[in-house]
């Protein structure tokens, strides 16, 4: 069978005409533009994936410092009684923790944080660990949801601020055991 460019099947004719020149030139122009752009982008522009990633990480770490900005020798909250920290901590509590612990810390799905009952310890170092590391869901203890970790989302300084506010609301939160 010889190749017939203008086949006809069931009354439908398939034309095999060359593409219009204007179409071909747009196609060629697109290919050239893509080549030029990729060479420019990878060789001559200053944007690099690694650098962009590192910059974003740096930005995040500046906002939420992971390293302990403030420390004390005995593990107690170094921001205890600090008026600024208490005010900042209250703001953080109301935006982040209140969803689970209630706007005044009276408890919701998460336990009451302003009474004298502490499941995971009532000293600054224990409460700090609880908030930073979170508490995994435990099937054996029905009714208790997980408590999310905050070491990456808030970082130590913001957590100490929240604890400064908590200590101002709850005298049973002790500096040390
Ligand atoms: C998604 C809900 C949720 C959020 C958000 C949350 N928590 Fe919790 N939290 C819980 C739950 C549930 C528990 C109880 C875990 C358990 O005992 O198994 C808990 C436990 C705690 C405890 C231990 C209480 C005790 O009696 O020992 C502290 C302290 C605490 N949360 C503080 C915070 C702070 C501060 C924040 C905000 C930075 C926060 N939580 C955000 C759900 C949450």
Set down the secondary structure blueprint.
Elements: E1 7-9, E2 12-14, H1 21-44, H2 49-63, H3 83-101, H4 124-133, H5 156-169
Antiparallel strand pairs: 1-2
Helix pairs in contact: 3-5, 4-5
The chain binds heme C.
Would you mind describing this structure in some detail?
The chain is mostly helical. The protein contains five helices and two strands, in the order ββααααα. It has helices at residues 21-44, 49-63, 83-101, 124-133, 156-169; strands at residues 7-9, 12-14. A two-stranded antiparallel sheet has the order 1-2. Strand 1 (7-9) and strand 2 (12-14) form a beta hairpin. Helix 4 crosses helix 5 (156-169). 18% of the residues are buried. It binds heme C. Heme C binds at residues 96-97, 99-101, 109-111, 113, 118-120, 127, 130-131, 135, 138, 141, 144-145, 147-148, 150, 154, 162. Heme C is lined by residues 96-97, 99-101, 109-111, 113, 118-120, 127, 130-131, 135, 138, 141, 144-145, 147-148, 150, 154, 162.
Strand content: under 5%
| Parts with pLDDT < 50 across at least 5 consecutive residues | none
Q: Would you give the CATH topology of one domain?
A: Cytochrome Bc1 Complex, Chain D, domain 2
Which term fits the overall shape?
A: elongated
- Oligomerization state of this entry? single chain
Mean pLDDT: 88
Q: With helices defined by DSSP (H or I, 4 residues minimum), what is the helix count? A: 5
- Mind telling me which CATH architecture of one domain this is? Orthogonal Bundle
Q: Strand order across the biggest sheet?
A: 1-2
**Ligand roster:** heme C
Order of helices and strands: EEHHHHH
CATH class of one domain: Mainly Alpha
Span of the ends, CA to CA: 96 Å
Helix-and-strand structural type = mainly alpha
CATH superfamily of one domain: Cytochrome c-like domain
**Largest β-sheet summary:** 2 strands, antiparallel
The percent of residues in helical segments reads 40-55%
């Amino acid at each position: 069978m010889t190749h017939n460019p203008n086949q006809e099947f069931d009354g439908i004719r398939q034309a095999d005409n060359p593409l219009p020149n204007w179409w071909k030139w747009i196609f060629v122009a697109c290919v050239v533009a893509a080549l030029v752009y990729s060479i420019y982008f990878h060789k001559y522009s200053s944007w690099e994936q690694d650098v962009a990633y590192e910059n974003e990480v740096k930005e995040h770490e500046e906002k939420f410092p992971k390293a302990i900005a403030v420390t004390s020798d005995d593990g107690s909250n170094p921001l205890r009684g600090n008026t600024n920290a208490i005010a900042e901590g209250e703001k953080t509590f109301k935006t982040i923790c209140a969803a689970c612990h209630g706007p005044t810390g009276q408890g919701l799905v998460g336990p009451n944080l302003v009474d004298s009952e502490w499941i995971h310890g009532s000293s600054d170092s224990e409460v700090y660990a609880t908030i930073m590391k979170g508490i995994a869901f435990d099937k054996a203890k029905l009714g208790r949801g997980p408590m999310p970790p905050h070491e990456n989302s808030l970082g130590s300084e913001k957590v100490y601020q929240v604890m400064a506010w908590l200590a101002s609301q709850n005298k049973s939160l002790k500096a040390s055991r």
